[in-house]
Automatic annotation (TrEMBL):
Protein name, as recorded: Olfactory receptor
Transmembrane segments: 27-49, 89-108, 128-146, 195-214, 226-249, 261-280
Family matches, as SUPFAM superfamilies: Family A G protein-coupled receptor-like
Family annotation (PROSITE patterns): G_PROTEIN_RECEP_F1_1, G_PROTEIN_RECEP_F1_2
Taxonomic superkingdom: Eukaryota
Amino acid sequence: MAHGNFTRVTEFILTGVSERPDLQIPLFFVFLVICGLTVTGNLSIITLTSVDSRPQTPMYFFLRHLAVVNLGNSTVIAPKMLINFLVRTRGFLVFTVAEVLMLAVMAYDRHVAICNPLLYRAVVSQRICLLLVSLTYLYGFCTSVVTSSSVFSLTYCSSNVINHFYCDTVPLLTLSCSDTSVPEAAIFISGSTNLVFSIITVVASYFNIVLSILKIHSSDRRKKAFSTCASHMTAVSVFYGTLLFMYLQPQTYHSVGADKMASVFCTLVIPMLNPMIYSLRNNDVKAALKMFIRNTCCSLNHSSFKSL
């Protein structure tokens, strides 16, 4: 669109993970497998924690919504990314913020369960669980609307090629010919506030958890207490480690390739890994999966027998 002496950009083109033509088809199949595992794993967690009677505690309620967030994050980005591998013209934020806060909520849940087990059901009641999850989604949505509105209110009049595989706000700002100080400040304040608040909540929760566990005299009880936190600690370490790598590197060490790979890991690989982390280290989830498979097989066999 012409505007004065320049052309206003109204459409953006994503360069994708790699611009090498010989890598497009192999990368398509790699990320197709990742996307398939992500959808299968997270849908399995959602199904198992919904239909089985055992994993119905607040921890599994939050795990179910973490799976919803992971599923949303990957399915928002992956389909467009897969299309970009196959076509030459290549013309998210809610779920990322929600995942940051959901992990903090889950850390608080583990803190109450181990430090105040007798009050667990009263403190982390169904009403509180619904409130925490609702606030997480609402805050993620509001943050996304404010940040996206400030970014897309700018004028873009130079290149329309974004050197990324999804429309992230930071690479987009580099294409603007307007003053970007306001959206940059909004992104920085929002991102740093979300990350610092979440990390403080997680660190404070696990500090108290470790102190409480060290006071337990029985080695078996200590081992059991640690095992209830192991899956969440692993997921938190992987997720925050990736975010800190992306945002706390000195600017001189930043490279487009490294940032893209970190983004791939954060938005696609971690949502695929989380169901594995929680299911492989959790006896309730494994038991629910075995029961679900057994019931499904029995139902199929019963249906086949009736048809005969």
